[in-house]
Design a protein that fits this description.
InterPro entries: DUF7945. The chain has 101 residues and is mainly alpha-helical. The protein has one domain. The protein is built from four helices and no strands. Helix 2 runs antiparallel to helix 4. The longest helix has 21 residues. 22% of the residues are buried.
Length: 101
């Protein structure tokens, strides 16, 4: 979802895909310790190798940067419109390619 083109938002400015933006961020950041602990600590359990941990580290950092600027409760439109959202998409695409190899 993070690698996809931003969707056409619903009438109240929300992403109506499943998973939506909120859930994708929760699964990547809130449901892992990767915003506080290096993803390398997950090698052998969730991640296969240092290449995967490197790309995950970059995606998490980009998502956290957007969250810091926009705020966790900000609208999906604000997140998708953030100046580095294209970096989030690019990094998520790289991570997706890496994780599905």
């Amino acid at each position: 979802m993070l690698a996809a083109e931003p969707p056409v938002l619903d009438g109240v400015g929300r992403d109506d895909r499943l998973p939506d933006l909120t859930n994708a961020v929760h699964w990547l950041v809130d449901d892992t310790p990767w915003d506080l602990v290096d993803p390398a600590t997950s090698i052998g359990t969730i991640l296969r190798d240092s290449h995967e941990s490197d790309v995950i580290r970059e995606v998490v950092a980009a998502v956290v940067a957007v969250s810091d600027r926009q705020g966790a409760a900000s609208s999906d439109a604000a997140w998708f419109g953030d100046s580095v959202w294209s970096d989030v998409r690019r990094l998520a695409t790289t991570a997706l390619t890496c994780l599905t190899r």
